[in-house]
Amino acid sequence: MRDESTAAAIRACAASRHLPESHLDKWLAMNTPSRMGLLEIAERLKMRTGQIVAAIDLLDEIEIREGSSPVAVLARDEIRRACALAGSGPARAAAFLDALRAIRFPRLKRAVERLSSEVAALRLPPGVRVVLPKDLGSDELMIRVSARTGRELGNLIDALAAKKSGLIRIAKLIGGDDDAEQ
Known about the structure:
Layout lengths: L2 H15 L3 H9 L2 H13 L4 H18 L3 H5 L2 H7 L5 H16 L1 H17 L5 E4 L10 E4 L4 H13 L1 H12 L7
Antiparallel strand pairs: 1-2
């Protein structure tokens, strides 16, 4: 696709999604292979406006931070895998953005992986689910208990009580408490 036709296709995509002018300008400022790569992914995954805005911002930040062009980032294995997942376009678009965030925020990715492994190590019974805050955007730890009978609920509460110190440790880790490392 020639540069003029790529720009026209991007403008059409942006117009159909009411993309803010500032983000259209950022998209058009990318080199041609980068513009085409993002356009192909946006159309294939049927990305919504907010998702395109987030992708443009993340690609811009990655380029500044790492010096990698957007086309180089879009060619990475983790990005290609996210785009090729089975499932709906919106699910693949979410996986694509998660992969971009993991590249942009590698320390956050490691922290989430560590907390997830801490939760898994607790080996909580089915019916108890520990929910970590999305992107560690808060220090709130949520625990969901799902039971069908009073007896089952009692057993789940007893299991939680037995794991109290591990759960407190995870809450401290989320809250940034340095004493939790000890």
